[in-house]
Write a structure and sequence with these properties.
Oligomer: single chain
Family: Belongs to the nucleoside triphosphate pyrophosphohydrolase family.
Shape: globular
Keywords: Hydrolase
Protein name: Nucleoside triphosphate pyrophosphohydrolase
Strand content: under 5%
Catalytic activity: ATP + H2O = AMP + diphosphate + H(+)
CATH topology of the largest domain: Helix Hairpins
Radius of gyration: 25 Å
Order of helices and strands: HHHHHHHHHHHH
CATH architecture of the largest domain: Orthogonal Bundle
Distance between the termini: 63 Å
GO molecular function, one term: ATP diphosphatase activity
CATH class of the largest domain: Mainly Alpha
Number of domains: 3
Length: 271
Amino acid sequence: MSDDLIFDPAGGLPRLREIMRRLRDPETGCPWDVEQTFASIAPYTIEEAYEVADAIEREAWGELKGELGDLLFQSVYHAQMADEAGMFDLDDVANAIADKMVARHPHVFGADSNAKSAAQQVDDWEAVKAAERADKAQAGVLDGMALGLPALTRAVKLQNRAARVGFDWPATDEVIDKIVEEAQELRTAEDAAHREEEFGDLLFVMANLARHMGIDPEGALRAANAKFTRRFGAIEDALARDGRTPADSDLAEMDALWDAAKRAEKARAAE
């Protein structure tokens, strides 16, 4: 078989599909790739999606092409394994999402008027998805919600679904009152299992507060992680100037350096 396509720098998607097919060839492919399954590859798929989100959040546009390629490769990987099993191939995947997008956008591809607000279009989108769930015999309000979503994201989606049928607090103050209640229950939990349960309840209500405030809890936590990383790095830099590491310091000193880093960030933001 000719390798012309494999080494064609302009080969595009056909080139990638052929590379994947060759990697999975049971006789001449890569042993690691050959032994993979849907389950073993799924964590990499999730990881690559986060890498895309990270590049966008950092506005690392020079990295985004590569990260999108990594994510695309995951779709090609799963489609190749499905093709080998006689289930579907990459064209079927592309056609399935194309059909879905056409069906969910009648204001673009059908006779519906496109003179609608974004909010009205979201309502239409949800109505179409509800009809799709009905076709799949998913009668429950919460049916069809992917289990593999990040927990905070899934919590918000579950709450949004329930809110559409009226199961929601009408005001943010009531959510905050519930947070106080859940925090007290966590404080008085008597054993490890109970503490874990109450901690989960508290996180769930915090996700609800984020929803009421129009905040993406995953994004907010990623920002907090980035801030912690940045400020702890400032602590390490300050100690390194004295030839020391955090292990050579103590909490009081590091807390003071943290506050200094915080003040410096605020001063730069005010400039």
